[in-house]
Hints:
Layout: E1 2-7, H1 19-26, E2 31-36, E3 49-50, E4 60-61, H2 63-75, E5 84-94, H3 97-103, E6 108-112, H4 121-127, E7 132-137, H5 147-158, H6 169-172, E8 191-192, E9 195-196, H7 206-224, H8 226-231, H9 239-244
Parallel strand pairs: 1-2, 1-6, 5-6, 5-7
Antiparallel strand pairs: 3-4, 8-9
Amino acid sequence: MRIDVVSIFPDYLAPLDLSLIGKARQDGLLELNVHDLRSFTTDKHRTVDDTPYGGGAGMVMKAEPWAQALESVAAAAPGERRPVLVVPSPAGERFTQATAYELAEEDQLVFACGRYEGIDERVIEWAAEHFTVRPMSLGDYVLNGGEVAVLAMVEAIGRLLPGVVGNPESLVEESHSDGLLEYPVYTKPSSWRDREVPDILLSGNHGKIARWRRHEQFRRTAERRPDLLDAFDAGSLDRADRAAF
Length: 245
Ligand code: 6GU
């Protein structure tokens, strides 16, 4: 997969050199390029923003530097398929684990990090000629710009690429992979500061352990994220699930 990120703060994306994603880049599993939007300006002051038509607070990102940047990265498209342009915005569609799985199937993702009050809307319309455009939000709160959201989205997508996570089984049994939160986990010692690991986990009975974990998933989800249970596909419940539910 190829990922291009366009930002006026390329240094914000430096953590993508580290850890799992940094290793994936070193191993050639992921090609990731960060571009400075200002390098696509032509004026002396490298201007990327201007005042909003209609008035109001703040500044709006100008269209032409974005068009230059996006044309440049689209020209480098690695595959036959049109690249996906992800536009991080609190006004976007919600980014979920399902979105991460979808985007992990693409040949090229381009992330357009807006700042200020956003990017001139005509860029988003025009970009649909070259890209599949996906405005995406992490959740219902406001960040100062798209960069931190891109760190989160690239990590969520990158770890799903083949070979990036050493043991692919760890992707199966994690929160949100099956619509429920993860069960609690414990390690040695079995007794710590007068707190015991649940007996069942020491029993060696793997059938019982699996049922206990499933039950804990439902209990936790009901307590912390009841909205997920509303959306949970009741048709996929097996008999043990129904008992736990
Ligand atoms: Cl993707 N961008 C910004 N600027 N704020 C956000 C967000 C994204 N998701 C939640 N808040």
